[in-house]
Amino acid sequence: MKNELENDKSYLSDDVSFRDYFLKSFLSLCLYYSLFPLIRAADLTNKLSVKDVLMKFSKAYKIPEKTGKH
Question: Which of these, 46, 20, 50, lies nearest to 35 by C-alpha position?
Fold first, then answer.
């Protein structure tokens, strides 16, 4: 996690923030290790890494829908 997710910097001072940090770290780790089997099942391990997939999704934005109202 230190290299792939850049999750090594906490800079926290209170207990609540520290627990939140570890919760986010745990969820990040779960996401990381749930993506790898999908990449392997698609036989893309020689073309893609988990970091590649995360970088692609990090650039995704929600496009607002046009409602017709101005």
Answer: 50
pTM over 0.85: no
Q: Contact at 8 Å (CB) between 5 and 32?
A: yes
Chain centre to alpha carbon of residue 35: 10
The single-letter DSSP state of residue 7 is -
User: pLDDT tens-digit profile of 41-70?
Assistant: 999 999 999 889 888 888 877 777 777 665
Task: Note whether 39 and 48 are within 8 A (CB).
Answer: yes
Rounded distance, CA 1 to CA 26, Å? 10
CA–CA separation, 23 and 29 (whole Å): 10
pLDDT at 43: 94
Segment holding 8, helix H or strand E: none
The 10 Å Cβ neighbour count of residue 39 is: 16
